[in-house]
Amino acid sequence: MMQQKMVKEERSLGDLFSELMSETSSLVRQEVALAQAELTHKATKAGKNIGFLVVGGAVGYAALLIILSGVVVLLANFVPLWASALIVGVGVAVISYVLVSSALTELRKTDPIPHESVESIKEDARWLKDQVT
């Protein structure tokens, strides 16, 4: 009776290998799903920020044009009209450069690599190696 139980509990190498492959396949699918979710989250965050940047820029541009025309008219009381337009234009160009540069710097800080998934896959590879050896 005891020998029958041992025989039932012992599994063949083929069964163990088949189970290992099944678990490994499942693990790989889960890791791919995790990486996809992480990349989707990062892309959504970057896309949202880019969208806000575009909309904010368009609204700000309209307001800026109106304000700048008022500044040009105001300066025209003290200097020739062409000079007031040139002064305002150069000032706006400097401000624009600073704003665009800072926005691009922030976008470059967005790291597209799914670090959590990469580490998890490395751990899985170590686990699989330990199981096979």
Layout: helices, strands, pairs:
Layout: H1 2-9, H2 13-75, H3 81-108, H4 115-132
Helix pairs in contact: 2-3, 2-4
In words, what does this structure look like?
By secondary structure, this protein is mainly alpha-helical. The protein has one domain. Helices cover 88% and strands 0% of the residues. The protein is built from four helices and no strands. Helix 2 runs antiparallel to helix 3 and helix 2 packs antiparallel against helix 4 (115-132). The longest helix has 63 residues, at 13-75. It is rod-shaped and about 100 Å long. The two termini are 33 Å apart. The mean pLDDT is 84.
Helical proportion, percent range: over 70%
Discrete helix count = 4
Main sheet record: none
> What gyration radius follows from the Cα positions, in whole Å?
31 Å
Low-confidence stretches: none
Distance between the termini: 33 Å
The pLDDT mean sits at 84
**What fraction of residues sit in β-strands?**
under 5%
Order of helices and strands: HHHH
The overall strand count is 0
